[in-house]
Amino acid sequence: MAVSSGLQMGTARRFPSHSAAVLVLAGLGAAWAWAGSAPLFGVVDLSGRARDPLPAGKAGPTVLVFTRTDCPISNRYAPELRRLRERFARRGAAFWLVYPDGSEATDAVRRHQREFGYGFPALRDPEHALVALTGATVTPEVAVFVAGDGGPRMVYRGRIDDRAVDFGRTRSAPTSRDLEQVLDTLASGATVQPRTTPAVGCFIAR
Q1: pTM metric for this prediction
Q2: Host domain of residue 89
Q3: Which of 29, 37, 41, 62 is at 20 to 30 A from 55, Cα to Cα?
């Protein structure tokens, strides 16, 4: 599979991330979060209302998509995320965009949703409650939770697919569609063994 040098969107652009603007390759560990009944302080929707997006009872899986308005790697995944949401929402999966940068204005987030046509709801996570719960380190990065007797359980964290190879290197097409594979397995009723994959993207400043 051919690998191109340079990202498709904004390779020379600088990205504000508080005091630093970097792209990182995140090597993810195996810390798996059980939310239980612990409150998610500071997680709000775009109207400022507290929200808990994690699945409960017999709800289907929840996909958290960590993103930001000015990350070109995140933005180029908008069509793929729309496709996955259209395919799996009808099977009970819930998709949420999560904006962890508290400096991004709500109006900018709304405009970002509209311009990229996501079509699914967004959350603000300025206190990094969801960042800490999942261990997410870059945008874009996804976390998949399923409901369980002991509370929501994270079964996947990492890349959407392997299109982004490394700094400034992308494949013309992915060879592994990791998020889709996880959702396919869950939709079939099979058990997903918890795992992580490395994600390439814009650093989430702590």
Answers
A1: 0.84
A2: 3-9+32-203
A3: 29
